[in-house]
Amino acid sequence: MKTGFTSMKAAIALALYGAALASAGAQEATKLAPPAERAAAGKTAGMTVLPGDDFFTWANGDWLAKTEIPADRGSWSAMGALAEETNGRIAKMIEELGAANASGKNASGEARKVADFYAAYMDEAGIEKRGLAPIRPMLSSIAAIRDKAALVRALGSSVRADVDPLNATDFFTENLFGLWVAGGLIDPSRNLPYLLQGGLGLPDRAYYLENNARMAELRTKYQQHIAAMLKLAGFDKAEERAARVFELELALAQTHAMREDSANIQKSNNVWTLKDFAAEAPGVDWKAFFKAAGLSGQERFQVYHPSAVTGAARLLANPDVAIWRDYLAFHKLNQYASLLPKAFADQRFEFTGKALTGTPQQSARWKRALAATNEGMEEAVGKIYVSRYFPAENKAKVQAMVANIIDAFSRRIEKLDWMAPATRAQAQAKVKAIYVGVGYPERWKSYDGLQVVKGDAFGNAIRAEEYRYRQELDKLGRKPERTEWAMPPQLVNAVNLPLQNAMNFPAAILQPPFFDPKAPDAVNYGAIGSIIGHEISHSFDDQGAQFDAQGRLRDWWTKEDLAHFKAASNKLVAQYAAYKPFPDLALNGQLTLSENLADLAGLAASYDAFKTTPSGKTALADRQFFTGFAQGWRTKMREASLRRIVLTDGHAPAQYRTYIVRNLDPWYKAFDVKPGQELYLAPQERVRIW
């Protein structure tokens, strides 16, 4: 996903707007602590921070002081609060469906499946009673692998559908490779299978390769976790097996592309035929691998991470089959731990929750049940949610805002003094061709072929996973659809889809205070408007700008315009690389460039659109606009979670996303920001692109 957003109840947000605006007149500022300590500093009673010194703390200080991170979270934010509230409503809705079924008032087919899926996951006693019986066939099949040919088939059959690499902040999949089906980068009119790197139990190659005490400690805990899971399943010599599994993953990690390379579309634009696999990644019977993956007959593959494919093939040339068996067994246990007896779920949380993110307490069962149901039948859940919580008039009003912000972005393009007419014409054509999905998809996915069995949580999850995979494979025989959604309606988020030249704004994010039809324009444009602008701008960030109006990877820039764009982008890279959340860890300006470009251009376009509204004429309205933007990013994070975000996420941590305002001239005027204040940039130092 390209971006994540959220907020809290409108009344609370409006009250905080007032509190923040009231403090703007203060003339003395507390000296700022180092960035990683500012959340704690925000708890100091009566602390005053000037907006020009730290806009994030100025806008959110009261919230930071009063808010504690829930025990089952590695972080807490405006996004988390809205998602929690939304999820609570959805869970209650599903439980009501289940109660109706139990009383003989059976819901419709899909709704009944949703209720049965959720109820089966909630049946902890039943799951405990069945023990390891549900996963035994998988483990037995793995144990039966005796040679390389059987191993290759097993690895091929483990391939599953994964996220869009053009939007993913995390390429994490425990299967050796992930698959995504979409239009080709060069020919978006034809669907291709994208092959993605995977196979790791830690979030990224950096966790295996960085040489520092913290990573070394996590690696030790991860090996202990592998051993504990194998021991719970009855494997002998668990510690020895775990050490060998870790060494295998370390070898895989060494072949993985770095995050920055994954974000480089040109490096990822590799179309291979079967002959290419044999030449570039020898040592594997790729025909057998793809047959096991359900991909027989495919002539071309978009190999997104070629080094990982080549590296895996090298490791499989003369494999120690016993180690690979243990590797496969551990990952099956780890992937499906929440569907097994409590000891497995608890052990998985001990590592992925406590060690990796610093989260002290596991989420309530209903939250995990809802997450599993959303994953298994996301649009079936979404259809029920939309029917209850997203009125048609809200959709119409958001569509009008989208049109206004697109027009504002178009006007900005027209005024660019550095852009040649030929490039400008291409940019305008792209703006005009954008498809915007608001609320929910035009055509819902069908779950008619999915079998959901009462009381079979494990089987339901496996069948849903396989059903989704078949749906992805079915797309290989069809042309891409520009209107296909990448997110379910109940997700608090938004996304830009470069290959479709499209955007999705799910219904769940179109709630107060991000969007409230009764709220002032300043509130709506500062909150949902900046999100809309952000997604529009992704079509023109360092990645999106490489795609044309039809979603084709094509250079439509003049040489001089592209040089200007890259030079301006490099200034933003340097600006963000200078931020250090910890003394030993700085942001990666290149990794976060796409999101930072979208934040910058999106906020500017939303501001321009806001200024065309009747209420957008006053200085107070400007302050409300920018304050609303900053309050949408209010976040507190545990240290482990923040470190993980900095290392692996394409988004800068929320605090630093608010600092994008230092590049916008109207922000300086609205808050009387002066030279010498920490966020002040001289006009010539402000990054100006779109």
If you had to describe this structure to a student in words, what would you say it looks like?
With 690 residues, the chain is mainly alpha-helical. The protein folds into 2 domains: 372 residues, Collagenase (Catalytic Domain); 207 residues, Orthogonal Bundle (Neutral endopeptidase, domain 2), CATH 1.10.1380. The protein has 30 helices and 10 strands. Strands 2-3-4-6-5 form a 5-stranded mixed beta sheet. Strands 7-9-8 form a 3-stranded mixed beta sheet, covered by helices on one side. The protein has a two-stranded antiparallel sheet with strand order 1-10. The two termini are 22 Å apart. The N terminus is likely disordered.
Short description:
By secondary structure, this protein is mostly helical. Helices cover 53% and strands 6% of the residues.
Quickly list its features.
single chain; 690 residues; mainly alpha; Collagenase (Catalytic Domain); Neutral endopeptidase, domain 2; 2 domains; five-stranded mixed sheet; three-stranded mixed sheet; 30 helices; 10 strands; globular; disordered N terminus
Number of strands: 10
* Number of individual domains: 2
Mean pLDDT: 90
Our Rg estimate from Cα atoms comes to 25 Å
Broad shape? globular
Q: Looking at this structure, what is the CATH superfamily of the largest domain?
A: Collagenase (Catalytic Domain)
Q: What is the CATH fold-level name of the largest domain?
A: Collagenase (Catalytic Domain)
**What percent of the residues sit in helical stretches (DSSP H or I)?**
40-55%
Q: Give the percentage of residues in beta strands.
A: 5-15%
CATH class of the largest domain: Alpha Beta
User: What's the CATH architecture name of the largest domain?
Assistant: 3-Layer(aba) Sandwich
Low-confidence stretches: 1-46
Largest sheet: 5 strands, mixed
Please state the structural category.
Answer: mainly alpha
